[in-house]
Design brief:
Helix content is 40%, strand content 15%. The strands form 5 sheets. Strands 2-7-6-5-4 form a 5-stranded mixed sheet. Helix 13 packs across helix 16 and helix 16 crosses helix 17.
Length: 577
């Protein structure tokens, strides 16, 4: 039995919220009723859907796979086509379509022993496997195969603690799926809004005359918990928020001791009703003065982790007299705060000095639990800005099972959608060596003066996208030399040519982005799908449409070269603008 993957960090949808929707008509008939959360939906008629479950799903079935066991195989033919509805292209995964389903299922209904008790045994095993795979709930559709939910399934779900929901005949599975994704989208919007507000508030607090206490107070308010700066010996150097219990304070001191003694850069602990996180301040001093930021918050509040990561970065600047690579001056701290508040790079150039800087974009992979603050320490910088995606591992890139999902290697994929805010953006002096870091994917710009940091930031983002698409630990942006082909054509002429050539795609940014990535990745369907966060079939459809709109043959290398030249001309024009 494969172990289920870690639960996703997409905002959970309470099962109770789905049950409360009168338009769906759902009814829970078995299993626990409190604290059940749904992260996504998956439809399968296989006897063993375990290989296609990630954990946290509501698994929907019309019971087609039960027909043979129950002796009603005649009702199974064409059942899905009769109106239950699939969950959209790709939602059911490879197990909802295709002629070889029965061969992939093990054990299948045909293997169940005939006679009394055969159905009970089969359904007991089905419920047990579904629970072991990490599914959050099972939805059973009434009609066209079954008139009622089998009593043996109700009993099996009660035995194994699997919430069982009856889906009435008038509710297609697509309606259930749509309701879940609508709720997920609304919850994600609330989370991102909250994180954005917290980042602005923390940056403003860091700019106050007494910044450390202000940041602690602001952090406590936004995570709805207790925050403290602790030394390795447990001494408190400031705190804010509701005073925790003695057990929580003791556990917090233990985490601060582990970090302050040269241990990991972050550590966590869980107590009843409380999640503790401790972050080593990357600018901390040595020995007994080493400080850790400790946050006690609700264990069911994932955004609190991301908000705390922002505060850890700011407190590193505020409290740390030095890092392993040199001083963190007051000017650098002020520059970071001003950048976080939205100042133009040219305005903070005098504070950062005339040196060249390298921009790094980083994305966490599934095989790491390391925080953004830990990566910042490894890179040797405190000038970092954790992004909206700075979450625990297994964050959703796009809603799994949808047309937009692109498969990647297990344990190596990034945890956010390509093109979204990366988990970390760092500003590093150009003379610092940047190497690959375990558990992270890095995109690195070329060294640039402060006035050119916006362009360097775009280059780092582009390098990160290429690294994610190619499953490479680190990709560096390289600017073409002075003798490149592009230097032979005047920028104005190149821009006019590009606009004319690509005019049929001008009103469709998705098509332009698809063409750009597809050409950059040498026509690879899979890598382009990964880079864009869409299904490979969607890439094929878009490329076919692009070829039609441009009335050209995209298999012709000369055509590809001319299109790439045009796209790069538009890129350079946008960068200059």
């Amino acid at each position: 039995m494969p172990h289920p993957m870690p639960p996703p960090s997409t905002p959970p949808v309470p099962l109770a919220a789905l049950l409360a929707r009168t338009d769906l008509g759902l009814r829970q008939i078995a299993g626990p009723r409190e604290g059940v959360a749904i992260h996504w939906v998956h439809t399968s008629e296989m006897a063993d859907p375990v290989p296609y479950l990630l954990g946290g799903e509501m698994l929907l079935t019309a019971g087609v796979h039960l027909a043979e066991v129950m002796g009603s195989a005649d009702g199974a033919d064409g059942a899905e086509a009769a109106g239950r509805g699939s969950a959209g292209p790709g939602t059911g995964g490879p197990d909802t379509a295709g002629p070889d389903e029965a061969g992939a299922a093990e054990p299948g209904p045909a293997d169940a022993a005939r006679g009394p008790g055969a159905l009970d045994a089969y359904l007991d095993g089905y419920a047990a496997r579904t629970v072991a795979a990490g599914a959050a709930a099972l939805g059973f559709g009434i009609a066209p195969v079954h008139d009622t939910v089998p009593a043996a399934l109700v009993a099996a779900c009660d035995r194994h603690g699997l919430p069982l929901v009856e889906v009435p005949a008038g509710t297609p599975f697509t309606a259930v799926e749509s309701a879940v994704w609508q709720a997920v989208t609304e919850a994600r919007h609330r989370e991102l809004t909250r994180l954005s507000e917290a980042q602005r508030a923390l940056a403003a607090a860091a700019a106050r005359p007494d910044p450390a206490p202000a940041v602690l107070r602001t952090l406590a308010r936004h995570v709805h918990g207790w925050t403290a700066l602790l030394a390795p010996d447990g001494a408190e150097h400031g705190s804010a928020g509701p005073r925790p219990t003695t057990a929580v304070r003791t556990a917090a001191a233990r985490l601060a001791q582990v970090i302050g003694a040269g241990g990991p850069s972050s550590a966590t602990d869980t107590l009843p009703g409380t999640s503790l996180s401790a972050y080593a301040l990357t600018g901390r001093g040595r020995g007994r003065q080493a400080l850790a930021l400790v946050v006690a918050a609700d264990p069911h509040d994932p955004p609190a982790h991301a908000i705390a990561g922002v505060a850890a970065v700011l407190l590193s600047l505020i409290t740390g007299p030095a890092t392993a690579h040199g001083p963190v001056t007051a000017e650098h701290s002020a520059a970071l705060v001003r950048l976080l508040l939205g100042a133009r790079p040219a305005d903070v150039a005098p504070l950062l000095g005339p040196s060249l800087w390298t921009v790094v974009h980083a994305e966490r992979r599934r095989d790491t639990t390391e925080s953004a603050a830990s990566l910042a320490a490894a890179l040797g910088t405190s000038l970092v800005a954790p992004g909206a995606a700075a979450e625990p591992p297994a964050a959703a890139r796009t809603r799994p099972g949808s047309e937009a999902t692109a498969p990647t290697e297990a344990g190596a994929e990034a945890t956010t959608a390509p093109g979204a805010t990366p988990a970390l953006r760092a500003l590093i002096p150009a003379d610092h060596e940047i190497t690959a870091h375990p558990g992270w994917t890095l995109g690195v710009s070329e060294p640039a003066p402060v006035a050119e940091l916006p362009a360097a930031d775009r280059h780092a983002a582009s390098a990160l996208r290429r690294a994610l698409a190619g499953r490479t630990a680190l990709v560096r942006h390289r600017t073409p030399g002075p003798h490149s082909v592009t230097s032979l054509v005047a920028p104005t002429d190149a821009r006019r040519h590009a606009q004319a050539l690509l005019a049929p795609l001008a009103d469709s940014p998705p098509l332009l982005a698809t063409l750009h990535n597809w050409l950059a990745l040498h026509g690879s369907w899979d890598r382009t799908a990964t880079a864009l966060g869409i299904h490979r079939n969607t890439v094929r459809q878009r490329i076919t449409r692009i070829a039609g709109l441009l009335d050209t043959d995209l298999d012709d290398p000369d055509v590809r070269m001319e299109l790439w030249f045009a796209l790069r001309s538009l890129d350079r024009d946008a960068a200059r603008t």
